[in-house]
Design a protein that fits this description.
Length: about 260
């Protein structure tokens, strides 16, 4: 079995949260939201988690001082300056040098509704298909603000198109990218080295990687595996309260049934 690793992006400031705390350090159901993501990765079988930190990184590091998971090590990569999601992932590349190629989740640290079962489904499809990249997508009624998953007439993946770049027809697509990825580590970093800087923002975007790999002629898989409820973004205190209520309800139901969250 190949090693399973996770890269969690946790360097953002979260300026809309009206707080000095990094966004991923805000608590949801009595724990920092990034801990929920890390816990799901560990439960899904990751042996290493690399957290990409930046803004007030000492706060994120402190969150994991009592990690206490003997089967999953936590390490920290620093993104400074912050030049987009693609740049953030490249900051973790040194942690893979000199090691055999592995499977690697790339996830956002501000998605505490993530489920270990969803990650397990994503990894199973990735491993069984022989893909170099696998995306878990979601079908939601209101896709506003999300990158759309564009497929060909046979239903095969073509690209992730950010909303600002969508044609009117693409804006009608309800399948979105909630940023759940699994990659072959070698293919990931090879493609990231070829990602161009966005002319408008000056950033490098991870969302360019699947299309680059597709153009290389390697397999890119897409699986509709993320429950629509889990896609909720946290960008404001109001959204934080909404996600907190959902997660507390889910945890309460799990305690009642004896099941997992």
């Amino acid at each position: 079995m190949r090693e399973l690793t996770a890269i969690i992006l946790a360097a953002g400031k979260g300026t809309r949260m009206r707080s000095d705390l990094p966004k991923v350090a805000h608590h949801v159901a009595d724990a920092p939201m990034v801990r929920w993501v890390a816990d799901a990765c560990a439960e899904a079988g990751c042996s290493r988690i690399i957290l990409v930190v930046g803004h007030q990184q000492e706060i994120i590091r402190a969150i994991f001082e009592d990690w206490g998971n003997d089967e999953c090590a936590v390490e920290f990569a620093v993104q400074e300056p912050q030049l987009g999601t693609g740049h953030a992932v490249r900051c973790a590349e040194p942690f893979f040098e000199g090691r055999p190629a592995c499977d690697v989740f790339v996830l956002a640290g501000d998605g505490p509704l993530i489920r270990a079962a969803t990650l397990a489904t994503l990894h199973e499809r990735h491993a069984s298909s022989g893909a170099k990249a696998t995306l878990a997508t979601s079908i939601i009624s209101d896709p506003s603000g999300y990158g759309r998953i564009v497929r060909d007439e046979q239903g095969r993946f073509l690209a992730i198109v950010e909303e600002k770049n969508c044609t009117p027809q693409q804006r009608e697509i309800n399948e979105v990218n909630p940023s759940y990825y699994c990659f072959d580590s070698g293919a990931l970093f090879d493609a990231l080295a070829r990602v161009s800087r966005d002319e408008r923002t000056g950033e490098f975007f991870l969302t360019d990687v699947p299309a680059l790999l597709l153009a290389d002629g390697v397999r890119v898989e897409v699986i509709d595996a993320v429950p629509s409820e889990d896609v909720l973004s946290i960008n404001t205190p109001e959204q934080l309260a909404e996600v907190d209520a959902i997660l507390r309800s889910r945890l309460g139901a799990a305690r009642t049934t004896g099941g997992m969250r």
